[in-house]
């Protein structure tokens, strides 16, 4: 089952010191991701943490793929649930989620659907990206290795590795995935949740 989800209706501009996710050529996007990965590995990547809602994070990703070539002829579906919050770097989280969505679109045939949602648990906020395909076991075993890629083009192989690096070492979360022929593939990142604001009483 896909579980509950957070819908994205409104967006806010990120104050992160990192530049916004590029909407340029694929080569430019790969170069930027490689640069961030190198900074992360060297311990020089700086974070700008702020209070982020799932709606803001998901809306950021939806905008990236609203006219992205990889999403052509496919649908990005957002499911719904209650609101949660997390103190994190919104730009870096957006890059992790965008990588998950991009990979899901690449594994989805024309006319297919990719789903993104979030779930709130005690003390945690989880983001999930689903596609209907299954990852072969021989690939699944190596999915987070630094230079492993199923793509033939040189310079690839940083996407899933970067998810793990950014999501766990820098955002303090847990990145994982499940994949079966029956249920498809789900990549997820769980982050520590922040307390929701206390409603004002009059």
- Number of separate helices: 5
Calculate the terminal CA-CA distance, rounded to whole Å. 41 Å
Overall morphology:
globular
Binned, the helix content reads 25-40%
Largest sheet features:
5 strands, mixed
pLDDT averaged residue by residue: 79
- Report the radius of gyration as a whole number of Å: 16 Å
Structural class: alpha+beta
Order of helices and strands: HEHEEHEEHHEE
Q: Runs with pLDDT <50, length 5+?
A: 1-19, 152-157
Q: How many DSSP E strands? A: 7
Range of strand content: 15-25%
* Spatial ordering of strands, largest sheet: 2-4-5-7-6
Description of the structure:
The protein is an alpha+beta fold and 202 residues long. The chain has five helices and seven strands. The strands form two sheets. The chain has a five-stranded mixed beta sheet. Strands 1-3 form a two-stranded antiparallel ribbon. Helix 3 runs antiparallel to helix 5. The N and C termini lie far apart (41 Å).
Question: Keywords for this structure?
Answer:
single chain; 202 residues; alpha+beta; two-stranded antiparallel ribbon; 22% strand; disordered N terminus
Short description:
With 202 residues, the protein is α+β, with helices and mostly antiparallel strands. The protein has helices at 26-42, 54-64, 90-106, 137-140, 159-170; strands spanning 49-52, 75-78, 86-89, 113-121, 124-131, 174-180, 184-192.
Task: Set down the secondary structure blueprint.
Blueprint: H1 26-42, E1 49-52, H2 54-64, E2 75-78, E3 86-89, H3 90-106, E4 113-121, E5 124-131, H4 137-140, H5 159-170, E6 174-180, E7 184-192
Parallel strand pairs: 2-4
Antiparallel strand pairs: 1-3, 4-5, 5-7, 6-7
Helix pairs in contact: 1-5, 2-3, 3-5
């Amino acid at each position: 089952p896909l579980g509950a989800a957070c819908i994205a209706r409104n967006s806010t501009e990120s104050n992160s010191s990192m530049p916004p996710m590029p909407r340029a050529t694929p080569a430019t996007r790969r170069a930027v991701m490689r640069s961030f990965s190198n900074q992360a590995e060297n311990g020089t990547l700086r974070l700008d943490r702020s209070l982020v809602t799932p709606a803001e994070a998901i809306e950021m990703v939806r905008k990236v793929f609203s006219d992205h070539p990889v999403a052509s002829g496919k649908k990005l579906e957002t499911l719904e649930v209650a609101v949660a919050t997390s103190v994190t770097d919104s730009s870096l989280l957006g890059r992790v989620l965008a990588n998950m969505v991009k990979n899901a679109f690449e594994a989805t045939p024309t006319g297919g659907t990719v789903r993104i949602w979030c779930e709130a648990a005690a003390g945690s906020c989880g983001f999930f990206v689903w596609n209907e395909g299954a990852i072969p076991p021989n690939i699944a075993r190596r999915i987070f290795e630094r230079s492993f890629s199923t793509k033939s083009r040189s310079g690839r192989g940083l996407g899933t590795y970067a998810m793990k690096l950014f999501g766990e070492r820098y955002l303090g979360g847990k990145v994982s995935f499940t994949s079966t022929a029956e249920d498809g593939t789900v990549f997820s990142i769980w982050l520590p949740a922040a307390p929701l604001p206390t409603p004002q009483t009059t």
